[in-house]
Each structure stands twice: as C-alpha cells, then as structure tokens.
Amino acid sequence: MDFADFAARAEEIEAESADLEITALVRDLFEESNDDLPIVARFVQGRVFPAWDSTTLDIGPNLCYEAIARAAGPNVTAADVEDRLAETGEIGEVAASYEFGGQRGLASFAGGGRDGLTVSEVDRSLRDLAAAEGSGSRDRKLDVLFGLFNRSSPAEARYLARLVLSEMRIGVGEGTVRDAIAEAFDAPVAAVERALQVSNDYGRVAELAREEGEAGLEGVQLEIGRPVQAMLAQAGTVGDALEAWGTVAVETKYDGARVQVHYDGEAVSVFSRNMEDVTDALPEIVEFVEENVGPPAILDGEVVAVEPREEGDGVRPLPFQEVLRRFRRKHDVGRMRGEVTLWLHAFDCLHADGEDLLEAPLTERYERLTEVLDGGVSKLTLTDDSEEIAAVEAAALEDGHEGIMLKNPESEYTPGRRGKNWLKRKPDVETLDLVVTGAEWGEGRRAKFLGTFLLSARTESGYETIGKVATGITDEKLAELTGLLEPEIEAQDGKDVTIRPSVVFEVGYEEIQRSPTYSSGYALRFPRFVAVREDKDPDDADTLERVERLAGSSNAT
C-alpha cells in the first residue's frame, strides 16, 4: 500500500465524528491493505511496534522539528518549526504546511524528490531508526527522518510526523480496531477481543482473522516472554464486594510497582505494568524466581521496597518512591541494589507448566500459584464476614501496607480490563494520576527550573486541564523534574511552556471542586505532588470520568 493512500484514509477517518462511520472506514482500510495489513493495523493507532513490545523510536520533539526543518529548506530552522507549532498547536498541521521534496543528500533516498513512499517502507525505516544506538545514532536518526519527510506530500507529512511522535489521534482507539477487524474479516467480536487480550498484537490478530478466521483467533495462546496487559482494579467498598459476590477473596494491597514475571524454565523476564522490560534493573527478583519457581510460568505480582525492622525480626515496606529508584535504572544497578532492597509479592498465575489460566477462576489460579512458587506468595483470605475483612485490613495497615484488595473468587483474568471483579480499598485520601501538559518557569533562585506544573485528566479524545501543582516539591526534585520534562517541551510563550503528554504525576488533594478555570470543569483544592508515576504511560492516567465520579462521591458526603 502506498503511504499516500494510508494518509488519505487517515484524513477521511479524522474528519468523521460518528463512531460507527469511523469503524466502517477503518474496516475498509483493512480490507484494502493486502500484505501491509499488520502494519496498517498498528499505524492507524499511532504504533510502530506491537503493544507488548517495549521498543520505542526514542525520538524527541526537537529531533523531529529538526528533520522537518531540514526537509523544508535551507531557510527553515527547528525554531521556525517550533514557532509554527506554538501557533497551530499540532505537529501534523505544521508538517503539512511545508512543501518538501527539494532537498538532496545521501539520506534522501534515491537523491531526493518524491518517488512514492510505501507503508512497508515507512515501517522498515522507522524500525531501522529505532535500532540505531551508540555513537552517531542521533545523526543517523535525523538522516532517516529527513529522508522520509523529504519524500512526503503534505498529507503524508501530517501523519508521518504524528506517527513519529506517537500522536496519531485520528479518533481510532483499541475498540475501534477490534470491531473493524471483526467486520472486515467476518469474525466474532468476542474471538477477536480474546485474541487481542492474549497476544497484545493488533497486526497479528488482524492477519489471523483474515487468513484463518475464528479458528485461528481461538488458537492464540499466551507466550512466555511476551507480556500481556495487567488486569486492573477500581475503587470499591467491603459492602460492594459482599453484596456482589457473597464470599470475597481478600489480600494485601502493596505500595509497590506492578510486575509480570515470565519464566521459561531457564531464563526469567520481568515486565512493568506498561509491559516495559525491566529485567536488568531487578536482579534479585530474577534470582528469586530462578530459585523458587518450578515449571515454566507467568506470574502477576508487586515489587516492594523493604528495610529491616528496628524493633525485631522481619522487614517493613518502604514508600513507592523507593521502588522507583530501582525500577528503570540502567546504570549502577549493583550499587542501587545495596541501597534499596526489593521483594516480590506474587498474587496471580496466568500460565503454569504449558497451561493458560486466564479463563480459570481466581481460586484455581491462586492454587496453581502456590504450586509453582515456593515463597513470596501473597496471602489470600476467603470470607463472607465483614469483621474478618476488617481484621485483614487492620493487619495490612499495621504492617505498613496501603490497604486491601477485594476480589471475586470466581473471576477470570481479563488483561487490560478495569472491571468490577477487583476492587481496591485504601483508607487514605484518594490520589489522582494526572498527565503533565504544561508548566511555568520559576522565579528567583528557581528561575532555571520548571516550578509549576499544569495537570490534565485523560479523555477519549485527548486531555482536559484540571489544575496546577507546585506544592510538595523540593529544589532537588524540581531539578530532576526539569531534566525529565524539558526535552518534552513543544512550545514556549514567555514563562509558560506547552509539554508533550508523556509524564504522569501522582497528585494528592483535599477536594475536587467544580470550576470554570480549567477545561475539565473541575479544579483540585490544595493539590500536592506525591511522585512521578514512572510505571505509567499517559494512556494509563486517570480519566475525566474518574474525576467526575470522585467529585460526585465527595459532594455526596
């Protein structure tokens, strides 16, 4: 498929507002895609790699601006591109505003000019770009991007720029792709959804639906070494759980980082909540699994930072921020291992000894967990007594943990779902995980730091602002946050900057109030910075729907 044809379809999809019509357009695109179907199924969502693959293009906005500027001509600079972005607010529109094709050079593919980009060629080039590392890798990436933009029409450049920066945003979500696959290849939606849950690869599932139909989809199994999305919980009460299920499975809620552990009988792989490979950063977890897991298995659990108790035997848990000191570290892992000790608390088993367990009830999965893992298993209590649940909660809090989880004993494991079968109960004031979309430079001794951060809640179409936070941040932390966010700055107006949605803050607050000040219609009263949620992507941040629910709950009390 020519990339120009993909861009034309993407333009049609973006212009459509009705969900059913969007699905129909995506269906038509899939039917036309031929050998490029797996690529198109990812591109339409703004992905180059399957969802389970943690490989990234590692392209910051500045490098993209520089490539656009070079392709646009000798009189255009990256600063000019940034200025246009400040005016338009959208990188695709900026890229489409230039006339490319006149710049020649080694990286301009066949000497410059437009000779017809194809979808597979763009995919191959972006994968080569992602593989570039070491000395000179930035220049190689810039050359590849320049070559692609130099061959692009305005429409192609619009969607290439968005794809490079993971900002496709044409109204196509995972549900749309699922339904479009089902319609295009006459496959049951349930079968498509199950295959997607198990594989986390929309391209592969689309191709299976076309080539093998329902039988091929039903044959998709978990693979050790290929992570799936974690099953999620929502806030709930003991009364909710007892009323819904009668008997409740109760376990400790840990203040740690969610992990998925894969063991093939020889090697261990550890993945974060957003399916990033964090194996190298957690050597003691790898060693623990090697020593204590028997058959090949996939486990779900939490990694918690601990230290010896002063008053006696055992250890006590440390705050979540201590886990983050270890979680994504690529250097000085040995030194940090000596400073921060990590323990694994496993609470679920997705696969054991060749058998997938996603559709088995929780109680069976837990039994298999105790069979495959010797130690490190979180205790599960089955009860229909609210007083016993309260006793479990009191013990968890006394041990220094966050609270308890309430689970339906008969529930299946549904990857990526935030249903009502898992409820989290924390006695503390709720916090929100919000996306940083802007900031202000500080004043005085803090002038070189970003000092106030604009926060936004996630919606289906983007992000809506809900407040600013500057409280609870030390100078040392401000320096760290500035280093984290400065590369993500898209535009600047005086002291105010616009930041590409990429970083999630955990924020505490006293109350959520209705307010016309922010686009969400709400504002946080006395917001307080808690931590950077390095284990969460913007797609995992809290939604405006949750904000509205919490605001309603607060007003009701």
What does this structure look like?
The chain has 557 residues and is α+β, with helices and mostly antiparallel strands. The chain folds into three domains: 47-164, DNA ligase i, domain 1; 232-425, D-amino Acid Aminotransferase, Chain A, domain 1, CATH 3.30.470; 431-556, Beta Barrel (OB fold (Dihydrolipoamide Acetyltransferase, E2P)). Helix content is 39%, strand content 22%. The protein contains 20 helices and 20 strands. The protein has helices at residues 3-15, 19-31, 37-43, 61-72, 78-88, 91-96, 119-131, 137-150, 154-164, 174-184, 189-199, 202-218, 238-245, 283-292, 320-327, 333-339, 362-372, 386-398, 475-485, 544-556, and strands at 232-235, 248-253, 257-263, 268-272, 297-308, 315-317, 341-352, 355-356, 381-383, 403-407, 418-425, 431-441, 450-458, 463-469, 489-493, 496-499, 504-508, 511-514, 522-525, 528-532. Strands 12, 13, 14, 15, 16, 17 and 20 form a seven-stranded antiparallel beta sheet that branches. A hairpin with a 4-residue loop joins strand 13 (450-458) and strand 14 (463-469). Helix 7 runs antiparallel to helix 8 (137-150) and helix 11 (189-199) packs across helix 12 (202-218). The termini are far apart. Mean pLDDT is 91; it is low at 105-113.
Q: Report mean pLDDT, rounded to a whole number.
A: 91
- Rg over CA atoms, rounded to whole Å, is 25 Å
From the structure provided, what is the oligomeric state, counting identical versus distinct chains? Answer: single chain
- Give the low-pLDDT segments: 105-113
How many DSSP helices? 20
